[in-house]
Amino acid sequence: MVGPSSFFLQLLLQIQAATQTGATPPDTSHDVIVVGAGSAGLYATRTLQALGYDVLLIEATDRIGGRVKTATLGDMRVELGAEEHYLGAGDNPVWPAIRAEYGDDVYTNGYEGLEAYSMDQGAGTCWTTPLALNPCANDPDVARVSEFYDWYWRPELHQDSSASLADEVLATYGVGVDHRAYHLYDEGIAGASYATNLTRLGARSLALQDSQWALSSGIRVLSDKDLGYADALETVWWDEVLAGADVLLSSPVVSIDTSGDDVVSTDLQGRRHMARQIIVTVSVGVLQAEAINFIPDLPETTVQAYNGMGIDSGMKVPLLFSSAWWETENEPLGWLVTEGAAGACWAPSNYKTATESFVLMCYPMGDNARALSELGSEQGSTAAAANAIIAAILEDLDATFPQALGGASANFMEGLVQDWGGAPYTLGVYSFPTQDTYLSATANKRRDLQEPVADSRIFFAGEATHEENPATVVGALQEGERAALAIHAVNGKPNNPP
Ligand SMILES: Cc1cc2nc3c(=O)[nH]c(=O)nc-3n(C[C@H](O)[C@H](O)[C@H](O)COP(=O)(O)OP(=O)(O)OC[C@H]3O[C@@H](n4cnc5c(N)ncnc54)[C@H](O)[C@@H]3O)c2cc1C
Question: Per-residue pLDDT for 17 more than 60?
Fold first, then answer.
Protein backbone atom coordinates (compact mmCIF):
# COMPACT_ATOMS: atom_id res chain seq x y z
CA MET A 1 0.00 0.00 0.00
CA VAL A 2 1.22 3.50 -0.82
CA GLY A 3 1.05 5.74 2.25
CA PRO A 4 0.32 9.48 2.03
CA SER A 5 3.94 10.52 2.56
CA SER A 6 5.27 8.35 -0.27
CA PHE A 7 2.34 9.50 -2.46
CA PHE A 8 3.43 13.12 -2.04
CA LEU A 9 7.03 12.10 -2.61
CA GLN A 10 6.00 10.50 -5.93
CA LEU A 11 4.03 13.62 -6.85
CA LEU A 12 6.99 15.83 -6.04
CA LEU A 13 9.28 13.67 -8.16
CA GLN A 14 6.79 13.87 -11.04
CA ILE A 15 6.61 17.68 -10.80
CA GLN A 16 10.39 17.93 -10.68
CA ALA A 17 10.70 15.63 -13.67
CA ALA A 18 8.11 17.66 -15.60
CA THR A 19 10.05 20.88 -15.14
CA GLN A 20 13.25 19.34 -16.44
CA THR A 21 14.38 18.89 -19.98
CA GLY A 22 12.73 16.16 -21.95
CA ALA A 23 9.91 15.35 -19.53
CA THR A 24 7.37 17.17 -21.69
CA PRO A 25 8.10 18.32 -25.21
CA PRO A 26 9.33 21.92 -25.38
CA ASP A 27 7.37 24.49 -27.36
CA THR A 28 10.41 25.33 -29.48
CA SER A 29 13.79 23.75 -30.16
CA HIS A 30 16.84 25.54 -31.60
CA ASP A 31 20.62 25.31 -31.64
CA VAL A 32 21.03 28.43 -29.51
CA ILE A 33 18.71 30.77 -27.60
CA VAL A 34 19.65 34.43 -27.29
CA VAL A 35 17.94 36.31 -24.45
CA GLY A 36 17.53 40.03 -25.17
CA ALA A 37 17.24 41.80 -28.54
CA GLY A 38 19.52 44.72 -27.74
CA SER A 39 22.84 45.38 -29.45
CA ALA A 40 24.62 42.37 -27.92
CA GLY A 41 21.78 39.92 -28.54
CA LEU A 42 21.18 41.02 -32.11
CA TYR A 43 24.87 40.95 -33.00
CA ALA A 44 25.28 37.54 -31.36
CA THR A 45 22.36 36.30 -33.45
CA ARG A 46 23.90 37.77 -36.59
CA THR A 47 27.23 36.07 -35.86
CA LEU A 48 25.60 32.71 -35.17
CA GLN A 49 23.44 32.97 -38.28
CA ALA A 50 26.55 33.53 -40.40
CA LEU A 51 27.99 30.31 -38.94
CA GLY A 52 24.84 28.38 -39.82
CA TYR A 53 23.17 28.20 -36.40
CA ASP A 54 19.43 28.07 -35.92
CA VAL A 55 18.73 30.80 -33.35
CA LEU A 56 15.73 31.76 -31.22
CA LEU A 57 15.89 35.39 -30.07
CA ILE A 58 13.66 36.12 -27.08
CA GLU A 59 12.93 39.72 -26.07
CA ALA A 60 10.98 40.92 -23.03
CA THR A 61 9.66 44.18 -24.48
CA ASP A 62 7.60 44.77 -27.62
CA ARG A 63 10.54 46.20 -29.57
CA ILE A 64 14.12 45.41 -30.54
CA GLY A 65 17.12 47.65 -29.87
CA GLY A 66 17.24 47.70 -26.07
CA ARG A 67 19.14 50.78 -24.96
CA VAL A 68 19.34 52.07 -28.54
CA LYS A 69 15.96 53.75 -28.89
CA THR A 70 14.98 56.61 -31.19
CA ALA A 71 11.79 58.70 -31.06
CA THR A 72 10.44 61.74 -32.89
CA LEU A 73 10.11 65.18 -31.31
CA GLY A 74 9.20 68.19 -33.43
CA ASP A 75 10.57 67.48 -36.90
CA MET A 76 13.56 65.40 -35.80
CA ARG A 77 14.57 61.97 -34.61
CA VAL A 78 15.89 62.18 -31.05
CA GLU A 79 17.86 59.57 -29.13
CA LEU A 80 16.31 58.26 -25.92
CA GLY A 81 19.28 55.92 -25.41
CA ALA A 82 22.70 55.88 -27.10
CA GLU A 83 23.52 58.98 -29.14
CA GLU A 84 27.30 59.21 -29.55
CA HIS A 85 29.16 57.20 -32.19
CA TYR A 86 32.88 56.53 -32.21
CA LEU A 87 35.34 56.66 -35.09
CA GLY A 88 36.89 53.47 -36.48
CA ALA A 89 39.52 52.64 -33.82
CA GLY A 90 39.17 49.49 -31.73
CA ASP A 91 37.55 47.42 -34.50
CA ASN A 92 34.36 49.45 -34.24
CA PRO A 93 31.99 47.82 -36.76
CA VAL A 94 29.40 50.62 -36.60
CA TRP A 95 31.56 53.34 -38.13
CA PRO A 96 32.28 51.58 -41.47
CA ALA A 97 28.80 50.02 -41.74
CA ILE A 98 26.87 53.26 -41.32
CA ARG A 99 29.18 55.27 -43.57
CA ALA A 100 28.97 52.59 -46.26
CA GLU A 101 25.17 52.77 -46.15
CA TYR A 102 24.63 56.53 -45.85
CA GLY A 103 27.89 58.15 -47.01
CA ASP A 104 30.57 60.03 -45.08
CA ASP A 105 28.33 63.06 -44.52
CA VAL A 106 26.06 61.01 -42.28
CA TYR A 107 28.25 61.98 -39.34
CA THR A 108 28.95 65.36 -37.82
CA ASN A 109 30.46 66.64 -34.58
CA GLY A 110 28.11 66.80 -31.64
CA TYR A 111 28.31 69.44 -28.90
CA GLU A 112 29.87 72.02 -31.20
CA GLY A 113 29.66 75.45 -29.68
CA LEU A 114 30.16 76.99 -26.28
CA GLU A 115 30.01 75.33 -22.91
CA ALA A 116 27.98 76.94 -20.16
CA TYR A 117 28.15 76.15 -16.45
CA SER A 118 25.49 77.21 -14.02
CA MET A 119 27.07 78.58 -10.81
CA ASP A 120 25.65 80.15 -7.64
CA GLN A 121 22.05 79.17 -8.46
CA GLY A 122 22.37 80.74 -11.89
CA ALA A 123 23.62 84.12 -10.70
CA GLY A 124 27.18 83.20 -11.74
CA THR A 125 26.52 81.12 -14.88
CA CYS A 126 29.55 81.38 -17.12
CA TRP A 127 30.25 80.68 -20.80
CA THR A 128 33.45 79.44 -22.41
CA THR A 129 34.03 82.50 -24.55
CA PRO A 130 36.07 85.54 -23.61
CA LEU A 131 33.29 87.68 -25.10
CA ALA A 132 30.66 86.43 -22.67
CA LEU A 133 29.18 88.66 -20.02
CA ASN A 134 30.69 86.18 -17.58
CA PRO A 135 33.53 84.16 -19.18
CA CYS A 136 34.36 80.87 -17.43
CA ALA A 137 38.07 81.76 -17.53
CA ASN A 138 37.29 84.29 -14.77
CA ASP A 139 35.96 81.59 -12.44
CA PRO A 140 38.88 79.50 -11.08
CA ASP A 141 36.53 76.78 -9.75
CA VAL A 142 35.22 76.20 -13.26
CA ALA A 143 38.59 76.56 -15.00
CA ARG A 144 40.10 73.90 -12.69
CA VAL A 145 37.70 71.18 -13.88
CA SER A 146 39.66 70.80 -17.13
CA GLU A 147 42.57 69.32 -15.12
CA PHE A 148 40.32 66.42 -14.13
CA TYR A 149 40.48 64.89 -17.60
CA ASP A 150 44.21 64.29 -17.38
CA TRP A 151 43.96 62.90 -13.85
CA TYR A 152 41.02 60.59 -13.33
CA TRP A 153 42.08 57.79 -15.73
CA ARG A 154 45.69 57.29 -14.59
CA PRO A 155 45.91 54.26 -12.24
CA GLU A 156 49.25 55.46 -10.83
CA LEU A 157 47.44 58.52 -9.45
CA HIS A 158 44.73 56.41 -7.79
CA GLN A 159 46.33 53.85 -5.50
CA ASP A 160 43.62 53.53 -2.85
CA SER A 161 41.23 50.82 -4.00
CA SER A 162 38.75 51.68 -1.25
CA ALA A 163 38.35 55.36 -2.26
CA SER A 164 35.36 56.64 -4.16
CA LEU A 165 35.86 59.26 -6.83
CA ALA A 166 34.11 61.71 -4.49
CA ASP A 167 36.79 61.01 -1.84
CA GLU A 168 39.56 61.71 -4.33
CA VAL A 169 37.98 64.82 -5.84
CA LEU A 170 37.78 66.19 -2.30
CA ALA A 171 41.38 65.22 -1.50
CA THR A 172 42.84 66.52 -4.77
CA TYR A 173 40.61 69.45 -5.74
CA GLY A 174 39.23 70.39 -2.32
CA VAL A 175 35.73 70.05 -3.77
CA GLY A 176 33.27 68.33 -1.43
CA VAL A 177 29.51 68.05 -1.57
CA ASP A 178 28.96 71.57 -0.18
CA HIS A 179 31.41 73.24 -2.56
CA ARG A 180 29.92 75.60 -5.18
CA ALA A 181 31.60 73.58 -7.96
CA TYR A 182 30.60 70.08 -6.76
CA HIS A 183 27.90 69.73 -9.44
CA LEU A 184 30.50 70.26 -12.18
CA TYR A 185 32.17 67.00 -11.13
CA ASP A 186 29.06 65.20 -9.92
CA GLU A 187 26.59 66.00 -12.71
CA GLY A 188 28.95 67.25 -15.40
CA ILE A 189 31.33 64.27 -15.21
CA ALA A 190 30.05 61.38 -13.05
CA GLY A 191 26.49 61.86 -14.32
CA ALA A 192 27.19 62.79 -17.92
CA SER A 193 29.88 60.15 -18.55
CA TYR A 194 29.14 57.33 -16.11
CA ALA A 195 25.41 57.77 -15.44
CA THR A 196 25.80 57.90 -11.67
CA ASN A 197 27.18 60.07 -8.84
CA LEU A 198 30.78 60.66 -7.76
CA THR A 199 30.17 58.82 -4.49
CA ARG A 200 29.35 55.54 -6.28
CA LEU A 201 32.36 55.39 -8.60
CA GLY A 202 35.47 53.56 -7.40
CA ALA A 203 38.37 55.91 -8.20
CA ARG A 204 41.04 53.25 -8.78
CA SER A 205 38.62 50.89 -10.47
CA LEU A 206 37.56 53.64 -12.86
CA ALA A 207 41.18 54.48 -13.70
CA LEU A 208 41.99 50.81 -14.32
CA GLN A 209 39.01 50.57 -16.62
CA ASP A 210 39.42 53.81 -18.54
CA SER A 211 43.18 53.48 -19.03
CA GLN A 212 42.28 50.48 -21.23
CA TRP A 213 39.77 52.37 -23.41
CA ALA A 214 40.16 50.96 -26.93
CA LEU A 215 37.72 53.02 -28.98
CA SER A 216 38.42 56.39 -30.55
CA SER A 217 38.29 59.46 -28.33
CA GLY A 218 36.56 61.19 -31.25
CA ILE A 219 32.78 61.30 -31.07
CA ARG A 220 30.33 61.83 -33.89
CA VAL A 221 26.55 62.01 -34.14
CA LEU A 222 24.08 61.39 -36.96
CA SER A 223 23.44 64.68 -38.74
CA ASP A 224 20.28 63.79 -40.69
CA LYS A 225 17.23 64.98 -38.77
CA ASP A 226 15.26 62.02 -40.13
CA LEU A 227 17.79 59.37 -39.11
CA GLY A 228 18.24 58.00 -35.60
CA TYR A 229 20.70 55.46 -34.21
CA ALA A 230 18.01 52.76 -34.03
CA ASP A 231 16.89 53.49 -37.63
CA ALA A 232 20.45 53.21 -38.93
CA LEU A 233 21.23 49.93 -37.13
CA GLU A 234 17.97 48.40 -38.34
CA THR A 235 18.87 49.26 -41.91
CA VAL A 236 22.49 48.13 -41.84
CA TRP A 237 22.00 44.93 -39.82
CA TRP A 238 18.90 44.22 -37.79
CA ASP A 239 16.28 43.94 -40.55
CA GLU A 240 18.31 41.14 -42.09
CA VAL A 241 18.96 39.46 -38.72
CA LEU A 242 15.25 39.43 -37.91
CA ALA A 243 14.41 38.00 -41.31
CA GLY A 244 16.67 35.00 -40.62
CA ALA A 245 15.87 34.25 -36.96
CA ASP A 246 12.89 33.10 -34.96
CA VAL A 247 12.04 36.08 -32.77
CA LEU A 248 9.68 36.28 -29.83
CA LEU A 249 8.83 39.80 -28.62
CA SER A 250 6.94 40.60 -25.39
CA SER A 251 8.21 37.31 -23.93
CA PRO A 252 10.29 37.91 -20.79
CA VAL A 253 12.44 34.92 -19.90
CA VAL A 254 11.71 33.97 -16.28
CA SER A 255 13.83 30.85 -15.86
CA ILE A 256 16.81 29.09 -17.40
CA ASP A 257 17.15 25.45 -16.45
CA THR A 258 20.35 23.53 -17.17
CA SER A 259 19.67 20.66 -14.78
CA GLY A 260 19.06 18.31 -17.71
CA ASP A 261 21.11 17.67 -20.85
CA ASP A 262 19.73 20.69 -22.69
CA VAL A 263 19.01 24.28 -21.76
CA VAL A 264 15.33 24.95 -21.14
CA SER A 265 14.27 28.57 -20.99
CA THR A 266 10.74 29.38 -19.85
CA ASP A 267 9.06 32.67 -20.70
CA LEU A 268 6.40 34.58 -18.79
CA GLN A 269 3.68 32.98 -20.91
CA GLY A 270 4.87 29.57 -19.70
CA ARG A 271 6.31 28.48 -23.06
CA ARG A 272 9.39 26.28 -22.82
CA HIS A 273 12.22 26.78 -25.28
CA MET A 274 14.99 24.23 -25.69
CA ALA A 275 18.51 24.64 -27.07
CA ARG A 276 22.02 23.33 -26.59
CA GLN A 277 23.30 26.70 -25.38
CA ILE A 278 22.01 30.12 -24.37
CA ILE A 279 23.44 33.64 -24.48
CA VAL A 280 22.04 35.97 -21.82
CA THR A 281 22.40 39.65 -22.74
CA VAL A 282 20.16 41.31 -20.13
CA SER A 283 21.55 44.33 -18.25
CA VAL A 284 23.40 44.12 -14.96
CA GLY A 285 20.33 45.76 -13.40
CA VAL A 286 18.15 42.83 -14.49
CA LEU A 287 20.73 40.30 -13.25
CA GLN A 288 21.06 42.07 -9.90
CA ALA A 289 17.27 42.05 -9.49
CA GLU A 290 17.37 38.26 -10.04
CA ALA A 291 14.54 38.59 -12.53
CA ILE A 292 15.63 35.33 -14.15
CA ASN A 293 15.65 32.16 -12.05
CA PHE A 294 18.69 30.04 -12.90
CA ILE A 295 18.31 26.32 -12.14
CA PRO A 296 20.65 25.24 -10.64
CA ASP A 297 21.94 28.44 -9.01
CA LEU A 298 24.68 30.31 -10.83
CA PRO A 299 28.21 29.87 -9.45
CA GLU A 300 29.21 32.34 -6.76
CA THR A 301 31.87 33.96 -9.01
CA THR A 302 29.18 34.85 -11.55
CA VAL A 303 26.86 36.27 -8.89
CA GLN A 304 29.74 38.27 -7.41
CA ALA A 305 30.65 39.45 -10.90
CA TYR A 306 27.31 41.11 -11.65
CA ASN A 307 26.88 42.32 -8.08
CA GLY A 308 30.38 43.80 -8.19
CA MET A 309 29.44 46.40 -10.80
CA GLY A 310 27.28 49.49 -10.48
CA ILE A 311 24.26 50.54 -12.49
CA ASP A 312 22.22 53.57 -11.56
CA SER A 313 19.00 55.38 -12.38
CA GLY A 314 19.00 57.87 -15.22
CA MET A 315 16.78 59.60 -17.74
CA LYS A 316 16.89 61.24 -21.11
CA VAL A 317 14.48 64.14 -21.39
CA PRO A 318 14.36 65.88 -24.79
CA LEU A 319 12.45 69.17 -24.68
CA LEU A 320 10.99 71.01 -27.69
CA PHE A 321 10.85 74.82 -27.50
CA SER A 322 9.41 77.51 -29.75
CA SER A 323 12.81 79.22 -29.97
CA ALA A 324 16.45 78.69 -28.98
CA TRP A 325 15.84 80.88 -25.92
CA TRP A 326 19.10 79.65 -24.35
CA GLU A 327 21.35 81.24 -27.01
CA THR A 328 22.38 84.44 -25.26
CA GLU A 329 25.97 84.67 -26.51
CA ASN A 330 25.56 84.86 -30.32
CA GLU A 331 27.14 81.41 -30.61
CA PRO A 332 25.52 77.99 -30.31
CA LEU A 333 25.41 76.24 -26.96
CA GLY A 334 27.31 72.95 -27.17
CA TRP A 335 27.07 71.74 -23.58
CA LEU A 336 25.47 72.89 -20.34
CA VAL A 337 25.78 71.74 -16.74
CA THR A 338 23.07 72.93 -14.37
CA GLU A 339 22.87 72.90 -10.59
CA GLY A 340 19.45 71.29 -10.31
CA ALA A 341 17.32 68.51 -11.74
CA ALA A 342 18.36 68.78 -15.41
CA GLY A 343 21.97 67.69 -14.81
CA ALA A 344 23.68 68.16 -18.15
CA CYS A 345 21.97 69.28 -21.37
CA TRP A 346 22.92 69.77 -25.01
CA ALA A 347 21.15 70.92 -28.16
CA PRO A 348 20.52 68.25 -30.84
CA SER A 349 18.89 70.96 -32.95
CA ASN A 350 22.39 72.42 -33.39
CA TYR A 351 23.66 69.30 -35.16
CA LYS A 352 20.59 67.95 -36.97
CA THR A 353 20.79 69.57 -40.40
CA ALA A 354 17.75 71.32 -41.84
CA THR A 355 15.70 70.97 -38.68
CA GLU A 356 13.26 73.72 -37.83
CA SER A 357 12.79 72.46 -34.27
CA PHE A 358 14.55 73.76 -31.17
CA VAL A 359 15.39 70.84 -28.91
CA LEU A 360 17.42 70.64 -25.70
CA MET A 361 18.33 67.15 -24.48
CA CYS A 362 18.67 66.88 -20.70
CA TYR A 363 20.41 64.04 -18.89
CA PRO A 364 19.48 63.74 -15.20
CA MET A 365 21.40 60.81 -13.72
CA GLY A 366 21.84 59.10 -10.34
CA ASP A 367 20.37 61.11 -7.45
CA ASN A 368 18.73 63.61 -9.82
CA ALA A 369 16.96 60.82 -11.68
CA ARG A 370 15.89 59.08 -8.49
CA ALA A 371 14.36 62.30 -7.14
CA LEU A 372 12.55 62.89 -10.45
CA SER A 373 11.28 59.29 -10.54
CA GLU A 374 9.94 59.68 -7.03
CA LEU A 375 8.24 62.93 -7.99
CA GLY A 376 6.71 61.14 -10.97
CA SER A 377 5.50 58.22 -8.88
CA GLU A 378 3.56 60.62 -6.64
CA GLN A 379 1.40 61.64 -9.62
CA GLY A 380 -1.76 59.83 -10.64
CA SER A 381 -0.84 58.74 -14.18
CA THR A 382 2.08 58.23 -16.55
CA ALA A 383 1.22 61.47 -18.35
CA ALA A 384 1.05 63.39 -15.07
CA ALA A 385 4.37 61.86 -13.99
CA ALA A 386 6.05 63.01 -17.23
CA ASN A 387 4.56 66.50 -16.82
CA ALA A 388 5.85 66.76 -13.24
CA ILE A 389 9.34 65.59 -14.25
CA ILE A 390 9.46 68.05 -17.15
CA ALA A 391 8.19 70.89 -14.93
CA ALA A 392 11.03 70.24 -12.45
CA ILE A 393 13.60 70.35 -15.25
CA LEU A 394 12.10 73.53 -16.72
CA GLU A 395 12.28 75.18 -13.30
CA ASP A 396 16.01 74.38 -13.16
CA LEU A 397 16.57 75.69 -16.70
CA ASP A 398 14.52 78.83 -15.99
CA ALA A 399 17.06 79.85 -13.35
CA THR A 400 20.19 78.93 -15.31
CA PHE A 401 20.81 81.88 -17.62
CA PRO A 402 20.61 85.37 -16.06
CA GLN A 403 19.96 86.86 -19.51
CA ALA A 404 17.05 84.49 -20.16
CA LEU A 405 15.36 83.98 -16.80
CA GLY A 406 12.11 82.05 -17.18
CA GLY A 407 12.92 81.33 -20.84
CA ALA A 408 12.45 77.58 -20.57
CA SER A 409 8.88 77.68 -19.27
CA ALA A 410 7.93 80.57 -21.54
CA ASN A 411 9.06 78.76 -24.69
CA PHE A 412 8.28 75.14 -23.81
CA MET A 413 6.09 73.21 -26.25
CA GLU A 414 6.47 69.48 -25.69
CA GLY A 415 8.81 66.92 -24.12
CA LEU A 416 9.53 63.22 -23.73
CA VAL A 417 10.71 61.34 -20.63
CA GLN A 418 12.68 58.11 -20.95
CA ASP A 419 13.33 56.74 -17.47
CA TRP A 420 15.88 53.91 -17.79
CA GLY A 421 16.00 53.17 -14.07
CA GLY A 422 12.24 52.63 -14.11
CA ALA A 423 12.26 50.52 -17.30
CA PRO A 424 11.56 47.02 -15.89
CA TYR A 425 13.76 45.17 -18.38
CA THR A 426 16.75 47.49 -18.09
CA LEU A 427 16.66 48.75 -14.47
CA GLY A 428 19.42 51.30 -14.95
CA VAL A 429 21.36 53.21 -17.57
CA TYR A 430 24.65 51.36 -18.07
CA SER A 431 27.24 49.65 -15.89
CA PHE A 432 29.99 51.59 -14.13
CA PRO A 433 32.97 50.58 -11.98
CA THR A 434 32.51 50.59 -8.22
CA GLN A 435 35.42 49.94 -5.86
CA ASP A 436 34.79 46.20 -6.36
CA THR A 437 34.85 46.07 -10.16
CA TYR A 438 38.56 46.18 -11.10
CA LEU A 439 41.28 44.78 -8.84
CA SER A 440 43.70 45.07 -11.76
CA ALA A 441 43.38 45.54 -15.48
CA THR A 442 42.88 41.81 -15.95
CA ALA A 443 41.34 40.76 -12.61
CA ASN A 444 37.94 42.34 -12.87
CA LYS A 445 34.26 41.56 -12.57
CA ARG A 446 33.57 42.19 -16.24
CA ARG A 447 35.95 39.39 -17.21
CA ASP A 448 34.49 37.14 -14.49
CA LEU A 449 31.03 37.60 -15.99
CA GLN A 450 32.34 36.49 -19.40
CA GLU A 451 33.11 33.01 -18.03
CA PRO A 452 30.67 30.44 -19.45
CA VAL A 453 28.78 28.47 -16.81
CA ALA A 454 26.76 25.25 -16.64
CA ASP A 455 29.34 23.24 -18.62
CA SER A 456 29.66 25.91 -21.33
CA ARG A 457 25.93 26.11 -21.89
CA ILE A 458 25.19 29.57 -20.43
CA PHE A 459 27.13 32.56 -21.80
CA PHE A 460 26.74 36.16 -20.60
CA ALA A 461 27.33 39.08 -22.96
CA GLY A 462 26.43 42.76 -23.12
CA GLU A 463 27.91 46.16 -22.51
CA ALA A 464 28.79 45.14 -18.93
CA THR A 465 31.04 42.24 -19.95
CA HIS A 466 33.35 44.39 -22.08
CA GLU A 467 36.57 45.08 -20.17
CA GLU A 468 37.81 47.99 -22.29
CA ASN A 469 34.80 49.85 -23.60
CA PRO A 470 31.80 48.96 -21.48
CA ALA A 471 28.70 51.17 -21.48
CA THR A 472 28.82 51.57 -25.25
CA VAL A 473 26.93 50.16 -28.20
CA VAL A 474 30.18 49.01 -29.77
CA GLY A 475 31.19 47.21 -26.57
CA ALA A 476 27.83 45.41 -26.53
CA LEU A 477 28.14 44.39 -30.19
CA GLN A 478 31.66 43.10 -29.65
CA GLU A 479 30.57 41.11 -26.61
CA GLY A 480 27.67 39.58 -28.53
CA GLU A 481 30.12 38.48 -31.19
CA ARG A 482 32.57 37.14 -28.58
CA ALA A 483 29.91 34.97 -26.93
CA ALA A 484 28.69 33.65 -30.29
CA LEU A 485 32.23 32.72 -31.33
CA ALA A 486 32.84 31.11 -27.92
CA ILE A 487 29.82 28.88 -28.51
CA HIS A 488 31.11 27.97 -31.93
CA ALA A 489 34.53 27.19 -30.47
CA VAL A 490 32.88 24.74 -28.06
CA ASN A 491 30.68 23.12 -30.69
CA GLY A 492 32.78 23.16 -33.81
CA LYS A 493 29.62 23.36 -35.87
CA PRO A 494 25.89 23.92 -35.35
CA ASN A 495 24.00 21.20 -33.50
CA ASN A 496 27.17 19.42 -32.59
CA PRO A 497 27.49 19.67 -28.83
CA PRO A 498 30.65 18.41 -27.16
C1 LIG B 1 20.64 57.02 -21.65
C2 LIG B 1 21.70 56.23 -22.34
C3 LIG B 1 22.67 56.87 -23.08
C4 LIG B 1 23.67 56.15 -23.72
N5 LIG B 1 24.57 56.80 -24.51
C6 LIG B 1 25.43 56.07 -25.26
C7 LIG B 1 26.19 56.69 -26.27
O8 LIG B 1 26.07 57.90 -26.49
N9 LIG B 1 27.03 55.92 -27.02
C10 LIG B 1 27.14 54.57 -26.82
O11 LIG B 1 27.91 53.91 -27.54
N12 LIG B 1 26.41 53.96 -25.86
C13 LIG B 1 25.55 54.68 -25.10
N14 LIG B 1 24.76 54.06 -24.19
C15 LIG B 1 25.01 52.66 -23.87
C16 LIG B 1 24.46 51.70 -24.90
O17 LIG B 1 23.16 52.09 -25.26
C18 LIG B 1 24.47 50.32 -24.29
O19 LIG B 1 25.78 50.01 -23.86
C20 LIG B 1 24.03 49.21 -25.25
O21 LIG B 1 22.93 49.60 -26.02
C22 LIG B 1 23.70 48.00 -24.40
O23 LIG B 1 23.37 46.91 -25.21
P24 LIG B 1 23.12 45.49 -24.54
O25 LIG B 1 22.74 44.57 -25.63
O26 LIG B 1 24.24 45.13 -23.65
O27 LIG B 1 21.88 45.72 -23.54
P28 LIG B 1 20.38 46.17 -23.89
O29 LIG B 1 20.36 47.12 -25.02
O30 LIG B 1 19.80 46.62 -22.60
O31 LIG B 1 19.69 44.82 -24.38
C32 LIG B 1 19.23 43.86 -23.47
C33 LIG B 1 17.86 43.42 -23.92
O34 LIG B 1 17.41 42.39 -23.04
C35 LIG B 1 16.02 42.55 -22.85
N36 LIG B 1 15.64 41.82 -21.62
C37 LIG B 1 15.81 42.18 -20.34
N38 LIG B 1 15.33 41.24 -19.52
C39 LIG B 1 14.85 40.25 -20.30
C40 LIG B 1 14.24 38.99 -20.04
N41 LIG B 1 14.00 38.57 -18.80
N42 LIG B 1 13.86 38.22 -21.10
C43 LIG B 1 14.09 38.63 -22.38
N44 LIG B 1 14.67 39.81 -22.68
C45 LIG B 1 15.06 40.61 -21.65
C46 LIG B 1 15.85 44.04 -22.75
O47 LIG B 1 14.52 44.44 -22.96
C48 LIG B 1 16.80 44.52 -23.85
O49 LIG B 1 16.16 44.64 -25.09
C50 LIG B 1 23.72 54.75 -23.58
C51 LIG B 1 22.74 54.09 -22.84
C52 LIG B 1 21.72 54.82 -22.24
C53 LIG B 1 20.64 54.09 -21.51
Answer: no
Residues with CB under 6 A from ligand 1: 35-41, 58-61, 66-68, 81-84, 252-253, 281-283, 286, 291-292, 314, 316, 420, 425-426, 429-430, 462-463, 471-474, 476
Q: Compute, in angstroms, the gap from residue 422 CA to the centroid of ligand 1.
A: 14
Q: Which of 69, 473, 474, 478 to mutate to test the pocket of ligand 1 (most atoms within 8 A of CB)?
A: 473
| Model confidence at 10: pLDDT above 50 | no
Alpha-carbon distances of 292 from 89, 252, 313, 327, 476, rounded to whole Å: 35, 9, 20, 48, 20
What lies within 8 Å, CB to CB, of 323 at 6+ separation is 358, 411
Q: Within the chain, which residue ranges are assigned CATH 3.90.660?
A: 70-112+215-229+314-419
Q: Whose Cα sits closest to atom 2 in ligand 1?
A: 81
User: Which pLDDT does position 494 carry in this prediction?
Assistant: 83
**Nearest-CA residue for atom 52 of ligand 1:** 81
Q: How, if at all, do strands 55-58 and 114-117 pair? A: unpaired
The CA 321 to ligand 1 mean position distance, Å, reads 29
Q: What is the pLDDT of residues 87-136, one digit of tens each?
A: 999 999 999 999 999 999 999 999 889 999 999 999 999 999 999 989 99
- For residue 241, pLDDT over 70 is answered with yes
Res 20 pLDDT > 90: no
Which residue pairs from 373-381 have beta carbons closer than 8 angstroms and sit at least 24 positions apart in sequence? Answer: 373/313, 373/315, 373/419, 373/421, 373/422, 376/417, 376/419, 376/422
Q: What superfamily in CATH does domain 29-64+249-311+427-491 come from?
A: FAD/NAD(P)-binding domain (3.50.50.60)
- List the residue whose alpha carbon is closest to atom 10 of ligand 1: 472
Q: 70-112+215-229+314-419 — its CATH code?
A: 3.90.660
Tens-place pLDDT, residues 160-205: 999 999 999 999 999 999 999 999 999 999 999 999 999 999 999 9
Predicted ipTM of the assembly: 1.00
Count other C-beta atoms under 10 Å from residue 378's C-beta: 10
- Residue from 242, 430, 477 whose mutation best tests the ligand 1 pocket (most atoms within 8 A of CB): 430
